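Q: How would the C-alpha cells look for this protein?
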Amino acid sequence: MKIEIRPAEMIDAEAICGLYVSEGMHPQFADRENIIRQNFEKQLGKKEHFWLVAMYKNMIVGVLHAREMQWLSNLKPYLYVQMLVVIPLLRKQGIGTKIMQYLENIACERYVAICLDSSMERTPAHSFYSQLEYENEGVFFTKML
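A: Here is the predicted structure in C-alpha cell form.
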C-alpha cells in the first residue's frame, strides 16, 4: 500500500472535519462542523500548528494535528499531538506509524519531545504508541467549562 504523508492544505478541510467527527474522535461534535472548519482554517499555516494528512489513492485516510508547546524548564519547545485518526478500514496497515514518523522526522531538530494523551478506554491506541516507544507517564484530566 503506497501512502503519502504531506502537510494539510485548505482544500483538505472537509475531509479533515469528517474524520474528526465521524471516525471515532468526537461524534458528539457533529453539529459543530462549521466551528471545526473555522478552527482548522485559522490554525493552518501557523508555525505552531502541524497538520499532516495521509493520502491513499488521492483520498485522505489519516490526519494528525500537533501543536507547539513550551515547558518552563526547557529552552526548546515540545510538540503536543492533539489528534491522530486513521479511517477504521485501514487501521493496522502502518498509516498511523508513517504519520508519526513523518512528524518525528520534521520535529527532531527543533523540539525536545512529542507528547500526547489518550483516553483510558482506547487501549489499542495505547499499544500503538508504546510500539512507537512513547512512554505512558500518567493520566490526563479535563474539566469542561
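The mean pLDDT is 86.

The chain has one domain: 4-131.

Upvote if useful.
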